[in-house]
What we know:
The protein is an all-alpha fold. The chain folds into 2 domains: 17-232, no CATH class; 234-474, no CATH class. The protein has helices spanning 2-17, 22-48, 53-72, 87-123, 135-154, 158-183, 188-206, 214-219, 223-232, 235-262, 264-302, 307-341, 346-364, 371-374, 378-401, 405-430, 435-460, 465-468. Helix 1 (2-17) packs across helix 2 (22-48).
Amino acid sequence: MRQRLQQFYQQNVSSLRQKGSFTRNLAITLSGSTLSTIIGILLTPVVSRIYPPAAYGQFAVYNALISNLNLLTTLSYPGAFLLPRRRSQFLALVQLTVLISVVTCGLLAVGLGIVGPWLVKQLHVEAMGAWFYTLPLMLLMFNLNNILSTWYMRDKQFGKRVGVDIATNLASRAFTIGYGLLAHGNVVGLLLADFFNRITATVTLAVGSIRHEFKGLFRQVSWKRMRLVAHKYRDFPLVYMPGGYVYVASTQLPIFLLAPAFGAEAVGLYSFSMSLLEMPINVLGAAIAPVYMQKAAETYQEAPERLPGITLNLYYKLLYIGVLPFSIVTVYGDVIFRVVFGAKWEMAGVFTSYLGFYSLFKLLSLGTAGIYTIMERQKYYLYANIGLLIVRAAGLSFGVATHNLDLALLLFGVGSLLSTFAVDLHVLSLLKLPVARIALRTLLLIGAALLLVKLSRWGLTPLFPKFLAATVRP
């Protein structure tokens, strides 16, 4: 036993010291993402006491528009950046993506000048004023940041991305708090902080090590080569983009459906809840997804028989990491939000209880989502997201029709959970893994953890009745 532990330790230390290894890259990105999220967690209670739920709701609508337009204004070509083997093809793909993004964001600016006032009124974001019209510029920064981040991922320069994430996160949080105190929680503070974050991150990445290739990138523009890569990777705009757009639309459904039915405050509570749930997912996603995608793409090209083992190993690790924390959030959500963020956010904790286990399965999908792209099965990605959209829309629509916000989000969470789990199992089946055994093991572990945490609350409630009593809906 001692000899095995010593061997395990030596292997991992050796991998950590090896430049460019999977273990070293993962350690760099995980440590940076963890630090970035710790900053966010420590400062969120301060932010939540400055900005009201309505401000979060209006900002959520603005961000939802960016998320929906991102795929349309790049045609999803950044998703193909890891695939070209020749550098010339990769650079042509970058040229094509930048060109598409600049042109489409310009067209958006023109369109917004025409229908902007009507759109502001329909979305109930009048409090943003003229700042709402920064949408095209913010979207362009978002696209460029995505292009540069994926470029660093392809070149295995994960340390640079981590440093940028930490610096920009800290700066934007400080800006959010400072402006919020001066403007008494006006939504513009959230918007400007995000704007500052995007610009800073984009400029910092652009002046990094890849800047030496910019001169050649824009000097040696080959329209022929761009046409060739556009055709070669046409599945991304034709199949992957619709699938991605359907997924984003289904994710943003609560924002666009709840705002007219229940108001900006309900959207703010939901958005705040999801932002907290997604913090650990973003930590591991920013750390694992880039490294895993690069490694999985490389493995599939050079030794495809190893890909199932790598994917299943990551799936189980994510399950073991997430099952207990998400069980605690599901059972104690209302208490945690009331104590940490203030009484006005307690209902956001209730919504967190409805969405907790969906977030766990979203975490698990970090180890499976990229397989459709790597195996060039983008059509399944489209089908999966259409199914997810239908399930979510049905649940939310029923809740809206009965004017029951709790029911709407509960059905949204359960439907999302079941759909995401089904997609994970389908991906694992494509890799010829024992799906039934994996599903049973997953459900048993989740059930045991949930029961354990639920019993703890039942046992502690008589001792602390005022503190742990269930939230009563006003």
